[in-house]
Amino acid sequence: MTQETLLQTIIQTMKGGVIVCDAEQRITLFNQAAENLLNQSESLKPAGPLHKVFPAGPVQHALDLVGYNQTEEDKAEYRQQYVQFMNSTCDQSRFFQCRLCLMQTAGQTDNSFVIIFEDAGSWYAPGSRVYLHTEELRGPIANLRAAVENITEHPDMPPVMRSAFENVLVQESLNLSNSFDSLADTYHGLLQSQSHLIAMRSSFFFGYLQNYLGKKGVPVTRNPDCSCLIKVDSHGLLLVVDFMIGQIKKSSRGSSLSCEAHCGEQFAYIDLLWPGEPLATADIETWLENILQESVGKVKVSEILQGQGGDIWSQPHSKPGFSILRLAMPVET
Questions:
Q1: Residue where a domain terminates, one of 58, 92, 119
Q2: Among candidates 228, 236, 321, 322, which has minimal Cα distance to 269?
Q3: CA distance 54 to 98
Q4: pLDDT over 60 at 256, yes or no
Q5: Which of 91, 119, 147 is the last residue of a domain?
Q6: Least-confidence region, from 16-20, 68-72, 146-150, 200-204
Q7: By residue range, what is the domain housing residue 103?
Q8: Bigger pLDDT: 248 vs 179
Q9: How many CA atoms lie within 13 A of 194 on its CB side?
Q10: How far apart (Å, rounded) are the C-alpha atoms in residues 162 and 156?
Q11: Cβ neighbours of 142 (radius 10 Å)
Q12: Axis-axis angle for helices 202-214, 234-250 (nearest 10)
């Protein structure tokens, strides 16, 4: 039995979808589960480009991250042989939890890789869409309360009927409001608890960030000895950082832009630093409403940050005459 035949036999027995690609990201092998998960997509075929099956951005990010992992000089126990990430079909109709690892032959990495993926549609709601739909109910609820107040200010009904009617409207509007708050909080907590967030050491992620931004001409300062555990959507977080850098440059604050990455007791911070005044809160809030087209599910900046418990604000830097835009990510305890 040849090695390829053995590999084909093995992957066909796996319950998850499996796609094997060469160094040029062309498909060499896949199993029946992959065909089923992708709804018999015509793009899934031998020698077909992977980017016709999955959007290229998350895959390339995973390849870059696992490549950095191979050369990382951090302690061996922090290393993993694969990178976990979220992706979708190209039409964003199906969502998957994926793992990517490089293939090795006789101990040598040949840049071929395998992606193992599972359906995430039962729990992954990109951009917290259901949460956002429930948020849209706040307006009608507020209108209901306003209507109740108007009715109470105009005594046009018989007292008994009016009293009963008012009591029902007031009580039911309060019940609806309380139920909504509970539903929204519960669902938002559920989204944050799901496994689209990946645990990693901040020293590893900040090291990758240093390489990533260094190639874009943005120097990163970090303390490699300071490390904490964080849970992040690394692809989404990098998209946010890229977007914010672009917005800062457009605001004429981009001269001498740099980055500082460090840990506090409760948060890990990515600070974008420039000479000049802090950004206005209104500007940041406007930026947060932008949709990042390369994100999984095409979601807003704010949704990516909310989905991993992050926050963002601008403030003066301790260095006189400088300011920062701070991205804060909670530390795992």
A1: 119
A2: 228
A3: 11
A4: yes
A5: 119
A6: 146-150
A7: 3-119
A8: 248
A9: 20
A10: 8
A11: 12
A12: 40
